[in-house]
Each structure stands twice: as structure tokens, then as C-alpha cells.
Design brief:
The chain has 349 residues and is α/β, with parallel strands linked by helices. The chain is built from 14 helices and 14 strands. Strands 2-1-5-6-7-8 form a six-stranded parallel beta sheet, with helices on both faces. It has a six-stranded parallel beta sheet with strand order 11-10-9-12-13-14, sandwiched between helices. Strands 3-4 form a two-stranded antiparallel ribbon.
Length: 349
């Protein structure tokens, strides 16, 4: 396969796991000779998403998206998100007979129910129809695959994640204030209600709590937790150095499907404390690089005893090169499935 078009509603300037995963996958694919094009909200007029202005929603219609898809002229279409662009791209693909895959990055029904009184089965019903329309739906972990299969999702394919071991590594020195009491318990990621950050901030831990990231809940939490050190959003080496400065990475989310931030923390030599739920169960599991417990305080305190070198060793099992090859193999399998189904349909006629 020589060319792939990725359609995504999540793209720069957003900073999140979906954007990082797509960006690194594209870089690795291009390094092995695959042309990768990205169709994002940057190609259209946009408006801010209600309750989440950092996310821009595309003001496009099906004809506009169809023209863009035709201009890129790629062999395969991958729809990464279920937003306005993703929905329009899927509509174009179904109408024109173009084979496509999707990926399930976010537990969208749980995110919606955290904000609105929408029953989970309504949201999952819509998502099931959207993803089952393609030739394959890529998921990051075994836990997510099992969960979606039980909900009627079909053609599920595994697509794991990676970590940039050259950027995310142990650093010498400190970027945090010198008077910040140790140990440092750290959260890195979007500061939003669905991340369950308050469960971390309410813990009675010795030392300091640090939150690295931006989002719609940032200013509210800053006012409510004056004793917590909020850095705002970080990228690149500044982000990696903040990870490295932590003693324990606390991941309080109950809704993430993977949690790239856990890999980044581990690569920096920082053990993880989390709930035993999807994401942490798959990334940490029984590796010994973190503590999973329904009692997040006990997990955070116990994680202090985990050797930092062991954490980095576990993270090195994940590479973006392997992730990209897995993605490409899925696209090829999906295209073969599409061709088989097309041939069978013609034979039946």
C-alpha cells in the first residue's frame, strides 16, 4: 500500500493522545515510503465545540469532503474520529464504495454521560453503526476489544501505541520549583471532567501534587486547589522534563481506552498509580511498573518503592515503528476484506 488518507477531527493545535498517535504513525509510515495525507478541521472553517472551545468543529458538507478525498487520491481511507469530519467521510466512502477503516480512541459514551443525561446504550448504538460500516475498527488494547465485541462491534483489529524513547527519558536536574516538597505526585494530560482529576487532587498525600496540562477544567481546579502546582500545557522536552521530575505518575481516569501518558511517564522512569480499569490493566497489568488499586492513595504511596530503571525497561516494549507497521497491516487486511466482499456480492448477482 503506497498511500493512506487519515481523516480526523482531532488535530493541531489540540494536544492529546489521539493527535500524538496519528502524528507519530504518519511519520513512521512516511519513513518506510507510504504517502500519508491528513484531512483535518484546518482545511475548513470551524467553530468552537460547546463546553470544550479548544476543540474546533468543521463547517463542511459532504460535497466538500468528497472533493478533498478525491484530490488526495489515496489507496486507503482511515477515519480516526467520530466527529463531523469523520461522519461526512464515512458517508462519502459508503456512497462511493471506497474501502475504509476506523479507530476507536475515546470512550465517547462515557464522556457524553459525564456531561449530559444521555443513556450509554444510545451512544453505543450510534457508534456501533458508525464503526461497523467500515472494513475494520482499530482498538489499542485487548480489554477494549473484548468490551466492544460484547457490544456488537465487528471486524475489530489491534493497533497498539508507542513512545518516543529519545524524548521521553530520565533527565538530570529539576524544572519544578526548588521549594516544592518531595515526593512529587504528578498528573499529565488534559484537564477535563472526564479525566477524573479530582480523585487525585483529593488524596491526602505527603509531599506535593503537580498537574501538567491544559483544558476546560484548569481554571476551576486552580481556584479550588490552591495547594496544587498547575503548570499549564507543556510540549516537547519541557513536557518530558516535567515527567522526569515526578516521583509517581497518578492516572485517575476511569474512561481512557489506553493512556499514552502512562507510557511517557514510564519511559521517563516514573512508576504509575492507577485504578484497575481499561487502559492501566493493559499497559501496567502485572509488569511491576506500577500499582493498580481501587484505593488510589494506597497505590500512589506504594508506587514510590518501584525502581525507576524497571519502569523505563517496560516502556521500551512499545515503539512507534511497531505501532505504524501494525496500523499498515490492518489497512491492507481491511482492503483485502473489502475486495473479497465486493467479489462475493458480484458473484451473488
Amino acid at each position: 500500500m503506497s498511500s493512506i488518507l487519515i481523516v480526523t477531527d482531532a488535530w493541531h493545535p489540540q494536544i492529546n493522545g489521539v493527535v500524538r498517535s496519528l502524528e507519530r504513525t504518519a511519520e513512521e509510515l512516511e519513513a518506510i515510503g507510504v504517502r500519508v495525507e491528513v484531512l483535518s478541521p484546518q482545511a475548513f472553517l470551524t467553530l468552537p465545540c460547546p463546553t470544550y472551545p479548544e476543540i474546533r468543529l468543521s463547517l463542511a458538507h459532504r460535497g466538500m469532503v468528497r472533493r478533498k478525498i478525491e484530490e488526495y487520491d489515496c489507496e486507503h481511507l482511515h477515519i480516526a474520529t467520530e466527529g463531523p469530519l469523520g461522519v461526512l467521510a464515512a458517508s462519502v466512502a459508503k456512497k462511493t464504495g471506497l474501502p475504509f477503516t476506523t479507530s476507536y480512541h475515546t470512550r465517547f459514551p462515557e464522556y457524553v454521560s459525564a456531561r449530559l443525561p444521555v443513556p450509554l446504550n444510545w451512544s453505543y448504538g450510534w457508534l456501533r453503526r458508525f464503526h461497523n460500516a467500515g472494513c475494520g475498527c482499530m482498538v489499542a488494547t485487548r480489554s477494549l476489544e473484548q468490551d466492544l465485541r460484547k457490544r456488537g462491534f465487528k471486524n475489530l483489529m489491534r493497533w497498539s501505541r508507542g513512545v518516543d524513547e529519545q524524548l521521553f527519558k530520565p533527565y538530570e536536574g529539576s524544572v519544578l520549583p526548588a521549594d516544592l516538597p518531595r515526593p512529587v505526585f504528578m498528573y499529565v494530560g488534559r484537564v477535563a471532567v472526564e479525566k477524573n482529576i479530582k480523585a487525585f487532587l483529593d488524596l491526602k498525600l505527603k509531599g506535593s501534587k503537580v498537574v501538567v496540562g491544559g483544558g476546560p477544567q484548569l481554571e476551576v481546579l486552580r481556584r479550588e486547589y490552591a495547594d496544587v502546582h498547575f503548570t499549564g500545557a507543556m510540549v516537547g522536552e519541557a513536557l518530558a522534563r516535567h515527567y522526569s521530575d515526578g516521583d509517581v505518575f497518578v492516572f485517575p481516569s476511569l474512561t481512557d481506552t489506553f493512556g499514552n501518558v502512562m507510557l511517557e511517564a514510564l519511559a521517563c522512569g516514573v512508576p504509575v498509580a492507577a485504578y484497575p480499569v481499561m487502559g492501566p490493566l493493559d499497559v501496567i497489568g502485572d509488569t511491576g511498573a506500577g500499582i493498580l488499586s481501587e484505593n488510589l492513595q494506597e497505590a500512589a504511596e506504594a508506587a514510590l518503592d518501584i525502581p525507576r530503571e524497571h519502569c523505563r525497561k517496560i516502556a521500551m516494549n512499545y515503539t512507534w515503528a511497531a505501532s505504524a507497521h501494525q496500523f499498515l497491516d490492518n489497512c491492507i487486511r481491511a482492503r483485502d476484506l473489502h475486495n473479497t466482499q465486493f467479489a462475493e456480492a458480484n458473484a451473488a448477482e
